[in-house]
Design brief:
With about 300 residues, the chain is an alpha+beta fold. It has two domains: about 150 residues, FAD/NAD(P)-binding domain; about 140 residues, Polyamine Oxidase, Chain A, domain 2 (Alpha-Beta Complex). The chain is built from nine helices and 17 strands. The strands form four sheets. It has a seven-stranded antiparallel β-sheet with strand order 5-7-6-14-15-13-16. A five-stranded parallel β-sheet has the order 8-2-1-12-17, covered by helices on one side. The protein has a three-stranded antiparallel β-sheet with strand order 9-10-11. Strand 1, helix 1 and strand 2 form a beta-alpha-beta unit. The longest helix has 20 residues. The two termini are about 15 Å apart. Bound molecules: flavin-adenine dinucleotide. Flavin-adenine dinucleotide binds next to helix 1, strand 2, strand 13, strand 16 and helix 9.
Length: about 300
């Protein structure tokens, strides 16, 4: 049996690889970046755990999948500007990526992109960016729509055409650590459409004693604005005193997918998924929701779909 190629090493791709392994289906995972995690990147610095991407989540999401990964005690409380009951990972969201990747024995290829996909004699052919061709019995697409669109141009042009309109908002995620007395709690920014949300925690797993960590999402900031200037501006706007102990600024060009906000999105995606050839499955956040539980489930379902295809 030829193996399955999983394209993308974010949560969706890793969950798919894990499920393939459970089903004893051989796989290769290809990831264009040198690290796994996609939109997740965590860093430990000066006693703080900073998240440059996904940081805070709804407590009442379905977190039951954490148990199987040994992460049932991994969440800590976070407060946010909308007074929601949120949680974060005690050692950063990367904790989940690492747990998903642990024990995976398939082949992992990093720093290599899949450029396009074709079919030949009942199997898939994948053209890599270095010109190499791979063959695969099945493919799991766990990359964002803007990349999938290009990969599928030849093999499913009508699918690709629809994904071409897929738009995103940019976001700059800013983490700032303070001594507790220096940051007003709750922090209040002058009303501004450019700051859609912010969240903070003083959980001892994430910050040193008597410190606090703020994570702000800022829209409409050009990439060229210097990180220090952004931190200083936020510091001034919320009337913090002292100096930040630590900060981290991450600019994400294509962060928030826009189409999922449209009422017809789910129906459209169902129609699109039906255009995929047998042996090809889709499992990324651009297709059915960003929540982590959905990512894990979508990855697992994609692997199961491939498993069913092999049985048929
Ligand atoms: C900046 C940011 C902040 C977020 N914050 C939150 C939050 O606070 N709370 C929350 O619930 N959710 C948040 N999310 C959403 C959440 O992070 C995502 O839903 C989830 O991580 C997506 O996982 P994924 O595997 O589907 O996609 P991704 O994480 O995008 O992974 C896709 C992977 O595919 C790789 N790839 C792309 N093209 C190719 C190619 N041609 N060949 C090989 N590999 C390729 C990419 O490098 C990437 O690693 C945030 C997302 C972003 C971007």
């Amino acid at each position: 049996m030829r193996d399955v190629v999983v394209i993308g090493g974010g949560l969706s791709g890793l969950a798919a690889a894990r499920e393939l392994q459970r089903l004893q289906i051989p796989y290769r995972l290809i990831e264009v970046k040198k690290r796994l995690g996609g939109s997740i990147i965590s860093e430990q610095r000066a006693g703080f755990t900073l998240d440059g991407g996904a940081f805070a989540f709804h407590r009442d999401d379905d977190w039951s999948f954490l148990k199987e990964l040994g992460l049932e005690d991994a969440l800590c409380p976070v407060k946010d500007s909308h007074r929601r009951d949120l949680v974060a990972f005690k050692q950063g969201s990367q904790m989940l990526v690492d747990a998903l990747a642990q024990g995976l024995t398939g082949t992992f290829i990093h720093r290599m992109a899949v450029s396009s996909i074709g079919t030949l004699d009942g199997h898939f052919t994948l053209c890599l960016e270095n010109g190499l061709m791979w063959e695969a019995a099945a493919v799991i697409l766990a990359a964002p729509a803007r990349h999938t669109e290009r990969m599928l141009r030849t093999v499913v042009p009508e699918f690709s055409q629809k994904l071409m309109d897929y738009g995103y908002d940019t976001i700059t995620r800013v983490s700032i650590g303070y001594e507790k007395d220096d940051m007003p709690v709750p922090p209040i920014f002058p009303w501004d459409v450019a700051i859609p949300f912010y969240a903070w925690t003083d959980d001892p797993n994430r910050v040193p004693a008597d410190h606090i960590l703020l994570n702000v999402g800022v829209r409409m900031l050009p990439r060229a604005v210097k990180a220090d200037a952004i931190v200083q501006e936020l510091h001034r706007e919320m009337k913090a005193s002292g100096k930040p102990v630590v900060s981290r600024v991450d600019f994400w060009e294509d962060a928030d997918p826009l189409p999922p906000h449209l009422p017809e999105f789910d129906a459209k995606m169902t129609t699109l998924k039906n255009l995929l050839p047998a042996g090809m499955a889709l499992a990324g956040s651009d297709y059915d929701g960003f929540e982590f539980a959905k990512r894990i489930r979508a990855g697992q379902q994609a692997a199961q779909k491939v498993g069913d295809y092999f049985k048929s």
